[in-house]
């Protein structure tokens, strides 16, 4: 790869992409490997320029293919700066937006789940305090470590408990 003129390949590909022409598979590979080719610029600069150029490819399979190959290359040879630039470019593609949106939805669901669990712990603590007035701190700490299904059981059984020590069988 280092024997190929990366600057020349870059210029040729840039002209073709800016003209709105579709790249061949060979040209996609060339664009991907520009960071490894001979150049007046350092590898990181070439990688960033390749990513920026790939971002200008019209939204289609070629763009995704090129970005996928660049990602694989950057994972192996890229520095933090070029990886950051890749992330910025990829997040602007349609698939990047879809992945981000999916991640946001998963995050919201996780947050709701955690909130529900935290609410159960708080509600159980409030019920125990209401019923028994004083709860030992060690019990409160242990309650926070219990799985949600045990919290549900305790919440139902609280009506049958006569003494705070009845809680011990669940802790």
Summarize the structure in words.
With 171 residues, the protein is an all-alpha fold. The protein folds into 2 domains: 6-92; 111-170, no CATH class. The protein is built from 8 helices and no strands. It has helices spanning 6-18, 25-33, 43-55, 61-77, 80-91, 94-132, 137-145, 148-157. The longest helix is centred in the middle third of the chain and has 39 residues, at 94-132. The relative contact order is 0.08.
- Helicity level: over 70%
The number of helices is: 8
Overall mean pLDDT stands at 87
Distance between the termini: 64 Å
Q: Could you say which overall geometry the principal axes of the C-alpha atoms support?
A: rod-shaped
| Number of structurally distinct domains | 2
Sheet of most strands: none
Strand and helix order: HHHHHHHH
Secondary structure: number of strands: 0
Q: Which structural class best describes the helix and strand composition? A: mainly alpha
Unreliable stretches (pLDDT < 50, length at least 5) are none
Strand content: under 5%
* Radius of gyration, taken over Cα atoms and rounded to an integer in Å: 29 Å
What keyword list fits this structure?
single chain; rod-shaped; DUF4351; DUF4351 domain-containing protein; 171 residues
SSE topology sketch:
Blueprint: H1 6-18, H2 25-33, H3 43-55, H4 61-77, H5 80-91, H6 94-132, H7 137-145, H8 148-157
Helix pairs in contact: 1-2, 2-4, 3-4, 3-5, 4-5, 6-8
In short:
The chain is mainly alpha-helical and 171 residues long. It has helices spanning 6-18, 25-33, 43-55, 61-77, 80-91, 94-132, 137-145, 148-157.
């Amino acid at each position: 790869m280092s024997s190929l003129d990366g600057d020349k390949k870059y210029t040729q590909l840039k002209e073709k992409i800016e003209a709105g022409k579709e790249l061949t598979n060979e040209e996609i590979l060339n664009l991907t490997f520009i960071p490894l080719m001979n150049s007046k610029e350092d590898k990181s600069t070439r990688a960033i320029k390749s990513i920026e150029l790939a971002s200008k490819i019209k939204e289609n399979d070629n763009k995704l293919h090129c970005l996928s190959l660049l990602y694989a290359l950057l994972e192996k040879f890229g520095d933090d700066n070029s990886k950051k630039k890749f992330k910025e470019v990829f997040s602007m593609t349609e698939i990047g937006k879809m992945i981000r949106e999916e991640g946001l939805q998963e995050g919201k669901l996780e947050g709701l789940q955690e909130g529900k669990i935290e609410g159960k712990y708080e509600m159980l603590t409030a019920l125990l305090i209401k019923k028994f007035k004083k709860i030992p701190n060690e019990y409160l700490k242990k309650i926070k470590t219990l799985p949600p299904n045990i919290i549900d059981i305790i919440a139902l059984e609280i009506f049958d408990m006569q003494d705070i020590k009845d809680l011990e069988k669940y802790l």
